[in-house]
Every structure is written in structure tokens, then in C-alpha cells.
User: Fold these one by one.
Assistant:
Number 1:
Amino acid sequence: MEKAVLINETSVMSFRLTGLSTNPLVQMAVFFIFLIFYVLTLVGNILIVITIIYDRRLHTPMYFFLSNLSFIDVCHSTVTVPKMLSDTFSEEKLISFDACVVQMFFLHLFACTEIFLLTVMAYDRYVAICKPLQYMTIMNWKVCMMLAAALWTGGTIHSISLTSLTIKLPYCGPDEIDNFFCDVPQVIKLACTDTHIIEILIVSNSGLISVVCFVVLVVSYAVILVSLRQQISDGKRKALSTCAAHLTVVTLFLGHCIFIYSRPSTSLPEDKVVSVFFTAVTPLLNPIIYTLRNEDMKSALNKLIKRREK
């Protein structure tokens, strides 16, 4: 009898995504804008990874972590944008329960891993600027590999814990998700049970990670800025440029995470706008900020392009 009840409670086999708009003209405009953003994200980030691998001068801890960031941005954008593009011309915008779970898992895997990576990159800049003579000793390749393994492991554990909490809930209707992709806060609202405890766990997990990492980042950059006051003007200018680029990415990315996951699962009109920046705009900022503001990357890119032309 209990099994029969459980089957009835989990009868939802798919969810309906509301998308960004129901207006055909707006949908068409959104399609082309997202398509352009996605193509530029793929091309820009993949080009960064290839350039860093190709140019031996960029085989340093800073660019090692930057290549990881570019790889994550490609994956993070691919989790949501292709599905959104295909749904533009669909009236129902259905996503199966299993596909929804997979999307949530990889969304949180790449998002949490990127948060940890941005924190590690801030530590790397702190060591490079505040302890330049000890930099290669502290940030040796063994340490870099261990940090990379740790941040990917942490992201995986975080994603598994949130996804497992979500799929254990019973779903018997409604089936409409008020967004253009599946995310834990929107999905658990559809559960046929009290989700108050789950919401607290989400806030204490995702929200706490975002807030703590943001505080650590702000403190680290404050220390860096104080340290830069004692440096010569040329070195100060280059370091400030790097930190400003990093801080821009951090603010936009972690701002979304704090806004979405540091409160109960209630829908706000701003959620979709913030989600657009999170899934489409922020992954594109990485190649723009780290190439246009970085002389080493621009030099390596020009060298790579000239080699290809020959």
C-alpha cells in the first residue's frame, strides 16, 4: 500500500519551463541574442584554453587556473543555453524529470567549482603580489594540482548533496518551473510535501558557501590593495588591472549565487534577469576581461594567429 502511494506521489514524469517570454517577437530576439552570446562564449573560452596550452610563457599557476575557469565557463553555459535555444520554438517547453535532475547536478557542479576556483585564484594573486619572492615555492605545481583536485571534489560533493535532497522529494503536480532551466529552488517548490527543512539546508549549503567565499575574496583583495600602496607605479598598475578584472567576474558571479540561494525558495520578478547574467553573460565576460585587459594573453593570441596564418 505504501509503495502504491509513493508511486502516485512521484507521478510527474516531466516539467514545463515557462521560458523568458511568451511573446513571439521577444522569443525570436532572445533566441538570437542567446545564440550570439553562446557562440562567443564557446569561441572565446576555448581560444583561451588553446592559447594557454600552446604558449609556454603562460604555463604559470595564474594561467593554469584561468584555463580551468574557461573550461568551467564553457561547461556551465552548455548546461542551460542549448536547451533554452531549442525551447524557443516549442510551445510546451518540456523537460523530462531525469533530464531536469541531470541539469541541476551539472549546474551546481560547475557553479560551485567555479566559486571555489575564484577563491583559489584570489589566493594565487595574494601570494604573487604580497609574497613575490616566495611565489613559486608556495604555488608550485604540486600545490596547484592539489588545489584543482580539491575544488573539483568540493563541487562534486556539493552537487551530489543538493541533487540527492531534491530527487528524494515526492512530485505529483504542479509541474511548471518558472524559469528557462531547472534549478533546485524552483523544483523543490513543486514537491507534494513540506520543504521548509530542505530550504534551510539549501540556504545553509549554497548560500553559506557563496557568502563565505565572497567575504574571503573581499578580504584578500583588501589586503592586496594595501600591499600595492608600497609598490612602484608600473607594477601597481598591472596588478590593479588583474585584480579589477578578477573582482568584476567574482562580483557578478557570486552576486547571483547570494541573491538566489541565500533566501527561501520564493519567486521574485528579478530572478530571471539574474539567471540570464548567471548562465549567459558571466561566462562570456571571462574571455573579454582576461584577454582585452591582459597584455600577456593578447601577445600570446597574436603569436598564435600569426603561426596559423603561415
Note: Residues 97-130 form the longest helix (34 residues).
Number 2:
Amino acid sequence: MSRVSPPLALAFSILALSTSAILVRWSTAPSVVVAFYRVLFTLLLLAPVALFRYRAHFRALSVRDGAVAAVTGVALAIHFAAWFESLNWTSVAASVTLVQTQPIFVALGAFFLLNERVTVRTVGGIVLALVGAAVMSVSDLLFGSAFAGTALYGNALALVGGVMAACYVLAGRSLRQRIALLPYVTVVYGACTLTLFVIALASGGALTGYPAREWALFAAMAIGPGVFGHTVVNWALAHVESSVVSVSLLGEPVGATLLALVLLAEVPGTATVLGGTTVLVGIFLTARAQRLDT
């Protein structure tokens, strides 16, 4: 990885992340089961390398850092469970855009929990993104679509996913400065897998008996959005400014919407496009304001 261009790796990771919603839609398994196997398979791919090459890092991990990493994994599990379920109730464009509002909630969380300063520029970006989210949330109800009766619920789940993604970022922000990438994601993904396993059992979702096509989709989610998506983004955070990473992630809703148009024949409505664009502009302004103010 030391010979890889960070901007190029980040661009590739955004492309990999853009396939996530499509792969989830193609699966017929319960959404929490899909989330469980995606994270489990990602963990199985990364953990052996981490345990072999970074044994000293695991031994040096403090109880406090391990506990925070575990909490981060729980937040990530709720993020996946809520977001994957939202794709059953609303459009790919709305779901992926709303779940990417996490920079807005990171800014709010940093203000309320970490006493970080929030400027007028940041507030303006937050307000603009929330206005766009409101437009997207009511557009299907007002103008009708394939998700007219369920979009509000699906959009709410996507926002919950965005809030949990923000908790994931806030909880793990300082850890990545002290812990190497693979040990960090191994602990986080381990806690995430265990949490999703408990949720799947509690919801009654079957964990076995799926055809080969489903197992192939689970593996594709782990390799694509899992390893080459989220894990490469975590690596990029050590080489690229976090504000740049946040803005780059805005490419995921655009890529996912285009893939949904081509592969699912899902055409977003005018209000969804306008609301989504407003959300993305608001997120961009928030990330840019945080960069200028630090």
C-alpha cells in the first residue's frame, strides 16, 4: 500500500462503495442477514493477515482503546442494519444520499459532545443539507413513485444509518491515530459481526439454506464495498485530510444512483434529484467549512 497513490486509492474505494446498494437490492435474504455476512466475510479476509503481521499491536492495545473500538463496531452494525433495511422501503438514490449525511451529524456531535466550535459556515451547510433531506423525504409522498407508501419510513431508516455512521466516525476518530489499520478494523469488524449476529437471531432471520447466488453476493459485498471500499477509506484517512475524504464520499450517492438507473431501471424523480443535490451541496459546504475553520 505504501506505493499506492492515496487519491487514486480513494477514487477506487468510492467506486467500490457505489456497488453496495445494488448488491443489497439483488439479494433476497433478510437485510440484517445480508449485513451480517458482508461484515463476517470481510473480517475473515482481513483478520488472518492482521493477526499474523500485527500481533504486537494487539498485545499493546489498551483495555480502554479496545472497549472504544468495540463500541465503534456496535455503531457500525446499527448503521448497516438500518441502511440495508432502508433499501427495501425507498429508492437507491434517496437511501444512499441520506445515509451519507454522516458529516452533518459528525459536526453536530463534535459540537455537543466534544465542545468543538461550529461556525456560521458549518451551520449553513447543515441547514441546507437538512432542507434537502426534508425535500427527499416528502417527494415520493407528494409526487408519487414506486415507493410512495413506504419512502418516509425508508428515508428515516437511512437517516438512522447516517447518525450511526457519524457515531462510528466520532468514536474511532482518535483511535486511528494510535492503532494501525488492520488491528483497528479487525476489532471493529469483530464487534460489528457479533452485534449483527445477535440482531439476526433476535429478528428470526435464517442464517443458512441460501442458494449459491446469495453466497456469491455476500462474498462480493465483502470484497468490493468491504475490503476495497470501507477498509481502503480507513487507510486513506491516514494519508489524506479527513475533510477531503468526507467530500470524496459524496461520489457514492452519484455512483449508486447511476448504477441503479442502469442495472435496476430505477429512475429518480425530479424532487428526489433536487433534494439529493441540495443534500450533497450542504454536506460539501459543511466539510469545507470544517476544513477552513481548523
Note: Residues 6-292 form one domain.
Number 3:
Amino acid sequence: MVTSIPLDTAKELVEAAEERAEEIENPMVITVANDEGNLVAQHRMDDAWLASVSISRNKAYTSAALDTPTHELAEASQPGNSLYGLQTTDEGRIVVFGGGYPLQRDGDVVGAIGVSGGAVEQDRDVAEAGLERWETLVEEGSA
């Protein structure tokens, strides 16, 4: 069984996320990473912010590396909480705000999606479109 995300599957997730970004009229950068957080596919929509290239990649990396959605790290990384300063670790690659989600199959993280280019709520919305496509592919047995 494939333990990571093949390029063809990554392209499907990017396409689903891009469709949602177009619906909300917000250009985004969409990244899909493998289970180690390494790049599988990345797409920058026309007029998406340049800074979002690295931010989306780091959101995918964070989700894969820590097996968690990035928005779930926000509160714990605030001053006085148990993960305070987390975003300053791992050569600055850890992102502690929303837009990154791990992709799971049979309870294992096999990749991640990261989206950047809008408000955090928009990034999450667009990433969730890719996540929903992933879950459909897993249910169908084609992921």
C-alpha cells in the first residue's frame, strides 16, 4: 500500500481547493506535502501573495510533522501555555495559525495540505475543500 500522497492525488486536492478559492474570490497558494512534510505539489493562483508560497508550504509541513491541524496549535502556543514559543522552533517552519491539515488514511498521517493567501478563516475554508476531497478519495479506495 502507498504510504504517502502520489502526485496525481495531490493535483486533485489542489484542484478542489482552487475551486473553493475561486468561489470565494480569493487567490491562494495551495500546497500538498508527503508524510514527512516534504513538497509533493504546490500551486500559486494568479495574484496570490508571494509570501503565501512559503507560508502554505510551512502549514503543510507543520501539519505533517505534528499530526495536527495548525489552528489547533494557536492557543497552546500563546504566552504562558505549554507550547509557548513553538513557532520559533524547527528553523521557523512551524506555523501556529489555521490553514494546514494532516491527511490521514487508516489512522495514519500520510500527508498534509496547507493553504495561505487570505484571512485565516478563508485559508481554513479553502484547505478544508482539499481535505474533503481527500476524505472522498479515501472512502472510494482511490487514495
Note: The chain has one domain: 7-140.
Number 4:
Amino acid sequence: MTDLKLPADPRQRRTGAEGDGAGDGARTRRGISWRTPLLVAGLFFLVYLTLSARRHAVNLSTGYDLGIFTQIVQSYARFSPPYSALKGPDYNALGDHFHPILALLAPAYKVFPSSYTLLVCQAALTAFSVVPLMRWAEEVRGRRFALWAGLSYGASWGLAELVSFDFHEVAFAVPLLALSLCAAGRGRWGAAVAWAVPLVLVKEDLGLTVAAIGLYVAWKGPRVTGLLLAVLGAGATALEMLVILPEFNPVGQFAYWPPETPDEPGLLAQAAGAFWPPVKWLTVFMIAAPTGFLALRSPLLLIALPTLAWRFTSPNPFHWGTDFHYSAVIMPIAFAAAVHAVAKGGIDARRLLPACAVGALTTCVTFFTHPLHELVTPQLWRETSQVRAADHLLERIPDGATVAASNQLAAQLADRATVSEVCLFPRSFPPREPAEWLIYDNADRSDPDCATGTALERTGGVAGYRLVEHREGISLLRRADR
């Protein structure tokens, strides 16, 4: 693999004038092609969209979260605050998480008013993040290294989890982080700062990631610029969590503070808890392994610390592992760090090849343990009798109706009806008046203590409603006074 070697022509070597990432082992390549990165990005766009769209088509998407985000973007498209009936009546979603960047999806939703619009946009945003990483990797070590970086990153488990579990606002963070960190690694400090600033509009915790980028810029580049960015990021997180989110939250506080306990552990015990249980160490291993552990050689990886810190100190076990979308923002950091490690020099082809092989092997293994493998499973492509029954019953609900639905059916209605959560998750607020329609799937175990499900299983009905039709364990009911 001669493409992994440095060029013999000294004119193609950098002199280090552009900053930390531009010295020693890196090189410039005039006219780096856009064609291959765009082709790889296009491939992953199709993969991501196929996975998420097919999951939605066979009713594997959920009200939490595709339904919620559909309602938010639908509100923006109507030029109203981002309300979500699934969270509660007239619930302003800016009291849940700070994500005004979602308003950018409103024009697309106005033209194509469907939950699929969100899935298309997420697939495009995530796939595009491949492009800056591949172009930088090609500058550093040529086309083969760029292909390894692009394919390993695009197929990484963190991105697979994002596109599999419906839609999330962090889809915007993935390309912004890739663009910012690739610029920082090259020593292009202005671009690094410019791409980092919009992250404060994606989610409240990402201001801390912006602060970390600012500290890196202050360390390796213009100090004042970096410190200003760090202050902006930290200040944005403080403003959002302490002022904006409580202002819009129905109970007047940030919704995700850890619950108070009577026996509060000491600071030392809390710090020790950040390193236990072992699943947290597995997550760290899984972040580094797809890069062949090259990321551990770059200080760019330190930018992932704020995200890991809040996750590992969280009392919610879902934040500790590799499931859901929480690691998606770490993937561009890890792979940018891997490219940066090679760009700094000191890694010849004999050491680089084994690292790339380890990364490729990890990607192949995680294909079978994370959601991309669903693309080759019959479940994603077969329309079962249960899916047909659900579609039939959903069609009986007219557009514009008020519906209380179980979690895995709510997303199917969010773009054409006012949908609330039939089981009333602990984090949602009940509607002011009963919905006109109620649809419940006995196979949906999202809330095992669902009062509606219990009533249907015990008595075959729900007080105040009459049964319209029952198929394949799915019950459709309508208010008796209608």
C-alpha cells in the first residue's frame, strides 16, 4: 500500500506553518478530488436512509423520539413555537432540550410534510460528515488512507445507532464537528471557530464541547480567539441550562438534573462512580478501537471529554453504554483525532497498516452487533400481518384528529394528527381532555405499567371509549360521546 507512505518530493511536504496538525508527517496535495469523498458520502446516505426509512415503514420507529421531533419541526413550519403534544399539551420543546437549529428543517417539511423528511435530512447531514474527514485524510496519506478513514467512520457503530433510533437533533452536530475538527487539525483556526459556534444551537451540553474546542485553539493557535470561544461555549451551556430551558419548562427547571437522594454521596464517591461500572470502560474502548487506536495519539481526542463526563456521571444507565444516539457526536472527534495523529508524523507505513487493519476489523465486527446489520435481516423487509393490521387501523383515523397512541404507533400519526402518549410516560403531561381516538398495541412494551394496556387486557375496553376494531393485538377505540 504505497499510498500510505509519505511522498518523496519535498515540495509536497508541509513546513508546519499552518499549526499543530500541519507539520512533520503531513502533506499537501493540490487538487484533492471531491469525487471519491462525495461518492462514499452518497453511498452512506443511501445506507442510512434505507435503514431509518424501512424501520419507519414497518412501525419500528417511535413517538419517543421521531414523533416528538416531527411535531417540533411541524410547529416551526407553521411559524409557531416548537410545540410537542407527545410531551404534553402546548408543551414548548425548548423547555426540554435547547435545539433551535431544528428550525432549519422547516422549509423542507413545508414542502414535504412527512416524518420521512426528517429521516432524509438526518441521513444527508450524517453522510456529509464523511467528506471533510476523507479530504483531510487524502491530504495526509493519500487515497487509500482516505478510503479507510471514510468507510470506517461512515460504518462506525456510533453513527449506526444514530440513524437507527429514529431522529435526533445531534444529526446537525456530526457534520459541524467534522468540519471544525478537520480545520483545527490543519491549523485553520478561523474555520475551526466558525464551524464550532453553531453547535450551541444544537443541544445544551454541546456548549461544553465548543468550550473544549476553544481551549484547544488557545493551546495550539491564537490564544485570545480560543479563549473567547471557550467562554462563549461554556456561557451558552450555562445560559441554556439555567435560564432558557427552565423558562420554557412547565415546572420551571431544567428537566434533566439528577434526582436528589436523601443519602447524597460525597464528592470523592461521585468521582469514583464516574469510572464504574465496567460498561463505561467498554464504551471508551469502543470509541478508540474503530480508529485502530490511532485516536489515542492525538490531543484532538480530548475534545470528547465533556460529552463523556456528563454521560459517565449521569445516574441514567442508558447514557453509559453504546446504545442509542449518545455516541454519535464522538465519532467525528475520534476519527479526526486518528487522521491528526497520522498528520503529525512519526507513524510510518509499517505501523499504520496494522492500526488500519485493527480499525477495519472492529468495524466489521460491530456491523453484526450494531444496527447496520438490520439491513440484511428479514424483519426490515417483510410486511408482517401485524404491520398490515396496524396500517389498516391507522388508516381509519382521520387526518387532523386527536389521538392517544402507544409509543410505536405514535410516530406513524405525528405528521397528520395531534398525537399524545396513551401510556403517559413519567416525563410527559396528560392532555387537557381525552383524545377522540385511542390506539394501543399489546406488543409494545415501551411502558410495561401502561394503565390503558392493563384495562384492555383485563376487561377488553377502556372507560369512556368504545371498541371500533381489534386486530393482531392492536385495539382501536373511539370516545363514546363521538
Note: Residues 1-19, 21-29 have pLDDT under 50 and may be disordered.
